[in-house]
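Example (one chain per record):
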Amino acid sequence: MVPSSAIANSLQEISNREFICLSRADNNLDLGGDLSELDDIGEITGLVYFPGTINLKPFSMLKEDDFLNDFEINVLGAVKVLKKVINNLKEADGASVVFISTVAANVGLPFHASVSAAKSGLEGMCKSLASEYASSKICFNVVAPSLTDTPMAKNLLRTERLVEASKEHVQ
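Predicted structure:
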């Protein structure tokens, strides 16, 4: 497994902790497999889970499979990864887990029904895990950015008007 090194390096610099970052965009995470790439990670004190999905359609065009796919990637993927590394995190003297959500989970945005449902589930799970693992000194947080300039979002930010429109929902 090759970690998402830019993010991992940034987090390590500001926190003096060892992070692994898993990203479908970086092709270092196979959620359909057994996640054997995580078997030999050793000691870690942090995990960032940001699989990234953009499935924007009018509700009338969404199929059940769209909802299932977004839920599988965003929630069940996080569950699978966390189950693989939770013992490593518990062994650390304080650890952090960060899930990446979207502003769409808390702000009503058109064409975001599927992804906002999945990310809302991720946020709810994070709150529960924070309570459950507080005594193990594992901190759970969610970051919910607006649209970010990434290769996955290039079609959504292809004009200056679209870039400006994406800034409307920044909180």
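Caption: DSSP finds four helices and four strands in the chain.
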